[in-house]
Design brief:
By secondary structure, the chain is an alpha+beta fold. It contains seven helices and 23 strands.
């Protein structure tokens, strides 16, 4: 009976298997599911935020904001250097934290607090993009966007009363209702855990912007600590710059690391041994690092003022509250290796005195960088000094050449800046002064950017690149205006002009 049962079972298994395969094949061929539909294709712009977040968990910042540049090279560098950067950063953190912890633990009767484990993990931070732009003051600003979803391991060991405990960050949750733990319901704990996980992941992985103020510019500006009194006495044996006749020298004074306008003496016409005896006071903010820059120029009625020589006096060489008369040799520049500095360019005699503020006299407010200095003595009582400072221009373009200079027309008088060759973004930084008997309330200043050919006999020797007419009523009322003006008859050209109205 046992053998017969085995034989029948074998045949039954074979017959059943064959019948099942035939039936399954028949159903697969002739029966199609009715609940299967073709997929719906929709553009991304029609998706809601949750759908986009699920489809695209990370959108690069350089895709969302085209003004951000890609920095894949930086991410590759950080990824390669991360094991070494991790050790260096953690070592620095230990060094900084150690004295702080040592100072605090006696208050709580703790024997010691140490890092048992401190590592930032194996996942380095990544930069999503970098924005770089230049301000009107020619400052380069870099705005990086960084993301870090790392796996750090930080364990802190604390010892107190002979016991030792370790602390590691951990997040848990619970929900009690009428004394019962709701989280004990089967499946609810996992559901809530996944929900929290998704929300936390969205916070950290979905691109977001977090602005962290690193340094307040107002607080970064140094307060005045003293006054530098500069008396320009005379110059001797200046070398003439003009081919015909003598030069017309004047002196410009400026402290390094200072954005305030330079101080200038009067012009001594046709004199190579001029005497000024003019005194100036300059605010000092850092006597250890600042230096007085002195430059002697040859004044020109038209065109660029030629530099006759210069020198620099570090303020740390001056003894406070002690006047010091110095005879300075004029140099071409401050490069000690320049052979041109061995040539004689004359001498300049100045008297310097640094007067530091006493603790009670230190100003509470930082000096206003927009303040306008007073007009010099001799200015008409009802009038003043109208100052035009031509800073720079952008995107000026000529059809035949671009060698720009600026031409100023005011009350029938014409002034010109130097010519900058082959430059669509020229920078002049030249100042022009007009002494007036009355305020220019109803006047206009005509500013014209002109391109002059550098070749003789060219068909197009001069070309107008754009112009602007500026009403001066606001300058009289506000004392100072520093703006960029769009040039008329220019596609994208702009020019930055600073106007000042100085009265006595």
């Amino acid at each position: 009976m046992g053998i017969l049962s085995s034989i029948l079972g074998f045949f039954g298994f074979g017959i059943g298997t064959s019948i099942g395969i035939v039936i399954g094949y028949y159903m697969f061929i002739y029966f199609q599911p009715t609940d299967v539909k073709d997929p719906v294709i929709r553009p991304l712009v029609e998706q809601d935020s949750k759908t986009l977040q699920r489809l695209l968990p990370e959108i690069p910042l350089w895709v969302k904001n085209p003004d951000y540049d890609r920095v894949d090279w930086l991410n590759r560098f950080i990824e390669t250097m991360w094991p070494y950067l991790d050790k260096a950063i953690c070592k620095t953190a230990r060094t900084i934290a150690k004295p702080i912890i040592a100072e605090q633990i006696p208050k709580y009767k703790i024997d010691s607090v140490e890092f048992e484990e401190l590592t930032l993990g194996s996942i380095p931070p990544t930069f999503q993009g970098m924005k770089v732009y230049v301000t009107d003051e020619k400052e380069l600003i870099i705005e990086p966007s960084m993301k870090w979803a790392g796996n750090p391991n930080i364990i802190i060991a604390a010892k107190a009363f002979g016991l030792r405990a370790t602390v590691q960050p951990h997040v848990d949750f619970g929900l009690k209702l009428l004394g019962a733990d709701v989280m004990s319901i089967p499946g609810l704990y996992r559901f809530v855990q996944e929900l929290i996980k998704d929300q936390v992941a969205n916070m950290y992985l979905w691109p977001k912007s977090l602005q962290v103020p690193i340094l307040d510019p107002a607080k970064a500006t140094k307060r005045p600590v003293g006054i530098l009194s500069v008396k320009v006495l005379r110059a001797m044996k200046l070398k003439k710059k003009d081919l015909l006749g003598a030069s017309d020298p004047y002196v410009k004074l400026k402290l390094t690391e200072d954005k305030l306008p330079s101080k200038k003496t009067t012009v001594k016409h046709k004199n190579l041994n001029p005497e000024w005896n003019e005194e100036f006071n300059i605010v000092v903010k850092d006597p250890e690092s600042q230096a007085l820059e002195i430059i002697v120029y040859d004044w020109e009625q038209v065109g660029k003022h030629d530099k006759m020589g210069m020198n620099v006096v570090p303020l740390k060489e001056l003894t406070p509250d002690e006047p010091r008369v110095m005879t300075l040799n004029l140099l071409k520049n401050m490069d000690p290796n320049d052979a041109e500095n061995e040539k004689s360019r004359g001498q300049l005699v100045v008297e310097l005195e640094y007067k530091p503020f006493k603790e009670d006299n230190i100003p509470n407010d930082i000096a206003d960088p927009n303040a306008v200095e007073k007009a010099p003595e001799g200015t008409p009582a009802g009038g003043g000094l109208f100052v035009v400072i031509v800073h720079e221009a952008q995107d000026v373009e000529g059809k035949h050449h671009t060698n720009p200079y600026v031409r100023l027309l005011f009350r029938g008088e014409e002034r010109r800046t130097k010519l900058v060759k082959k430059n669509r973004d020229p920078r002049w930084e030249e100042e022009f002064q007009f002494t007036l008997e009355e305020p220019p309330t109803n006047d206009r200043l005509h500013v014209e950017v002109v391109s002059a050919s550098s070749r003789i006999g060219l068909l197009h020797p001069k070309e107008i690149l754009g112009y602007v007419d500026i009403n001066l009523a606001d300058v009289v009322n506000n004392k100072r205006i520093n703006e960029k003006y769009h040039l008329i008859d220019s596609r994208n050209g702009r020019i930055q002009i600073e106007l000042q109205w100085r009265t006595s």
